[in-house]
C-alpha cells in the first residue's frame, strides 16, 4: 500500500513546481537568451579584453597580385601536345560554312568549264557581283600581313621593377618599402590595427595609404590567409609590448592608375615575380609569404 501513496503525494508536488516556474517567469519578466547571442556577446567581450591587454601589436598586410595579362609560352612538351590535340580536333570536326562555300564555288567553276554548261541555272545571281570564298581568303591574308602584334617581351619595361606592366606573362606581387623600427624594409603593404575597425579594413587602409599608387583591388576574403609573428629585441621588450602579429589578406589588382603603370624612379614600391622576392625579403618573412602566393 506504500507505493500508491507515494505516487499520490508526488503528483501534487510536480504540479506545484511547474506552476511556480510559470508564475515566477510571468511576474519577473525573465527573458530567455539563445545560445548564439550569448556566445556572440562572449566572443566580442573576449576580443575587446584581449585587444586592450594583449602584449602583441596587431598589423594587417595585403598580398596584392597582378594576374598574368598574356599566356605564358608553351614548353616543348606542351607544344607537341597542343599540335596533337589540334590534329585530333581537325580530323573529327565538321566542315564550316566557309569550307562549304569553297566547295560550292569549286563546283560552280567546274560546271562553267564544262561543255554542257547552261547559264540559265544561275539566273538568280546574274545581276549581282559574285564574291568568291577564295577572294575573301585573299583579303583576309592581306589584313593578316599588315597586322603587327604587340611585343610579348619588352626589355625597357620588364627591367622597371616599379611598373605594373612588366612581365606580362607572369604573376606579380606588390612590395612596399616601410619603416620598421630603425630600418627600412621591403614588405607587403601593411598598417597597424586601430580600435573600431576590422583587420580587413586595416589591410584596405594599408593599400590606399601607399603614396602615388592609385590602385584598385578586389579582396578575396574577409579572413586572413596567413599570419607572421615576430618578437622585439630583448633590450626593448616589455610586459606590454612583446612583439607584432601580421595578418595577411589576399587581393587581386583590378585597375592600376597611370601613376602605378609608370611610377617614378624613386618609387617606394615594386612589382616582383615570386622568384624575385627572395632578394628583397628576409628569409623568415619570405618563407611565410611564399606559402600562400601561387604562380597563376
UniProtKB/TrEMBL annotation:
Domain (Large ribosomal subunit protein mL46 N-terminal) spans 56-153
Keywords in alphabetical order = Mitochondrion, Ribonucleoprotein, Ribosomal protein, Transit peptide
Cellular localization per UniProt: Mitochondrion
**Any one annotated GO CC term:** mitochondrial inner membrane
Principal location class: mitochondrion
Q: Which InterPro entries match?
A: Ribosomal_mL46, Ribosomal_mL46_N, Ribosomal_mL46_NUDIX
What's the superkingdom here?
Eukaryota
Pfam families noted in UniProt: MRP-L46
- Could you give a GO molecular-function term held by this entry? structural constituent of ribosome
Similarity section: Belongs to the mitochondrion-specific ribosomal protein mL46 family.
The protein in question is named Large ribosomal subunit protein mL46
Amino acid at each position: 500500500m506504500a507505493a500508491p501513496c507515494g505516487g499520490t503525494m508526488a503528483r501534487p508536488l510536480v504540479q506545484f513546481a511547474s506552476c511556480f516556474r510559470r508564475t515566477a517567469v510571468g511576474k519577473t519578466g525573465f527573458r530567455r537568451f539563445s545560445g548564439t547571442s550569448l556566445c556572440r556577446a562572449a566572443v566580442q567581450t573576449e576580443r575587446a579584453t584581449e585587444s586592450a591587454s594583449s602584449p602583441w601589436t596587431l598589423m594587417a598586410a595585403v598580398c596584392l597580385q597582378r594576374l598574368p595579362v598574356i599566356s605564358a609560352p608553351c614548353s616543348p612538351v606542351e607544344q607537341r601536345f597542343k599540335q596533337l590535340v589540334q590534329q585530333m580536333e581537325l580530323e573529327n570536326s565538321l566542315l564550316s560554312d566557309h569550307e562549304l562555300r569553297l566547295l560550292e564555288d569549286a563546283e560552280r567553276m567546274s560546271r562553267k568549264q564544262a561543255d554542257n554548261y547552261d547559264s540559265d541555272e544561275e539566273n538568280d545571281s546574274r545581276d549581282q557581283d559574285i564574291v568568291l570564298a577564295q577572294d575573301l581568303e585573299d583579303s583576309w591574308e592581306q589584313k593578316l600581313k599588315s597586322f603587327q602584334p604587340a611585343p610579348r617581351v619588352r626589355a625597357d619595361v620588364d627591367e622597371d621593377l616599379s611598373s605594373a606592366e612588366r612581365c606580362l606573362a607572369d604573376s606579380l606581387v606588390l612590395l612596399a618599402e616601410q619603416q620598421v623600427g630603425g630600418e627600412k624594409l621591403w614588405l607587403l603593404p601593411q598598417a597597424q590595427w586601430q580600435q573600431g575597425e576590422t583587420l580587413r579594413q586595416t589591410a584596405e587602409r594599408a593599400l590606399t595609404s601607399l603614396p602615388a599608387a592609385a590602385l584598385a583591388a578586389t579582396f578575396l576574403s574577409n579572413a586572413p590567409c596567413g599570419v607572421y609573428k615576430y618578437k622585439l629585441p630583448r633590450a626593448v621588450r616589455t610586459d606590454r609590448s612583446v612583439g607584432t602579429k601580421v595578418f595577411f589578406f589576399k587581393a587581386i589588382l583590378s585597375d592600376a592608375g597611370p601613376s602605378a603603370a609608370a611610377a617614378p624612379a624613386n618609387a617606394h614600391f615594386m612589382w616582383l615575380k615570386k622568384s624575385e622576392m627572395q632578394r628583397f625579403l628576409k628569409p623568415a618573412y619570405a618563407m611565410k609569404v611564399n606559402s600562400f602566393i601561387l604562380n597563376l
